[in-house]
Amino acid sequence: MSESTTVRPAARDGADDGAAAFRDATDRIAASIERVIDGKPEAVRAALIVLLAEGHLLIEDVPGVGKTMLARALAASIAADVRRVQFTPDLLPSDVTGVSVFDPVVREFEFKAGAVFANIVIADEINRSSPKTQSALLEAMEERQVTVDGATHGLPDPFLVVATQNPLEMEGTYALPEAQRDRFMMRISMGYPDARAEALMLRQRDAANPLDELRPVVTTDQVRALIAWARSVHVAPAVEDYAVALAQATRSHPELRLGASPRATLQLVRAAKVNAALEGRGYVLPDDVVALLGPVMSHRLIPSRSATQSRRAADAVPAILERIASSVPVPVAG
């Protein structure tokens, strides 16, 4: 795809300085995380994209591959309020959102904030709690607020939920509701480390945990500035139409029972903006959209029964998305 006038805007005043500052800050965040998460640059980049696109991240994989470690390393790299919630079958919705408690001294109800009131919320093993408790996050993740007993309480800015979950085939897990999955901008898997990274982990963590040595490399004010810069990245109408066409193709595809929501389209474009900024560009290319199609869309789509007869459901959706991406015309220079 050529960088033509179709997708490339005029230069902004101070754009070079802003782009350099953006790259410097994001490189520092990524380097900080990679001190703990070695050999997983794709996962680190995905976490960074979700943070700066104001989304939420779902990390799904088997136990012991570093899901929670990635979430904690991201949180430790930012000077922000962080809370970790271990989701269990007996966790209550009020433990997450908060509860109003009667104060007999002043004879009034006082709101006690729950674990969700933080800049970064680590929801560990989110699918080990009941769907009722999982749903306590719906309002917080979409509207950045919590309503308890008729009173609405705003959440900190920035606000990010990083949730980990084990595969549904594992004992004691509950499927996330469709509305919950749709609120996660991206779903990624960690995968097993290669032999070199695993050997390095054995040597580095024999005496100390590298997570304990991490210090914040950016402040919340700097994160807000990075978010604002990424939000200003230009998206040409042709690229917007391309993202819409991809989403609509999932809704009419015969092998899908549930296609992508309009929220998915919006989050795909937001993530593409950050991806472009990380590449040093002030404009989005169709390649940015295609690169994030799988991580943004795959967890929202439900394959039909016929699509899963010849392959596992986990393999069916990526294959369908690949066919959709190859069938939708890519915008070119006019």
Detailed description of the structure:
The chain has helices spanning 15-34, 41-52, 67-76, 93-97, 131-134, 138-143, 178-182, 195-204, 220-231, 237-252, 262-278, 286-291, 293-297, 313-327; strands at residues 57-60, 78-79, 82-86, 98-103, 108-113, 120-124, 145-148, 151-154, 160-165, 186-188, 218-219, 256-258, 302-303. Strand 4 and strand 5 (108-113) form a beta hairpin. The protein has 334 residues and is of the alpha/beta class. Helix 10 (237-252) packs across helix 11 (262-278).
Contiguous uncertain segments of 5+ residues: 1-6
Topology as a string of helices (H) and strands (E): HHEHEEHEEEHHEEEHEHEHHEHHHEH
The count of strands amounts to 13
Count of DSSP H/I helices: 14
Oligomeric state of the chains in view? single chain
Mean pLDDT: 86
Described by strand count, sense and barrel closure, the largest sheet is: 5 strands, parallel
Principal-axes shape call: globular
Strand order of the largest sheet: 3-6-9-1-10
As a whole number of angstroms, the C-alpha radius of gyration is 21 Å
What's the quick description here?
The protein is α/β, with parallel strands linked by helices and 334 residues long. 43% of the residues lie in helices and 16% in strands. The relative contact order is 0.16.
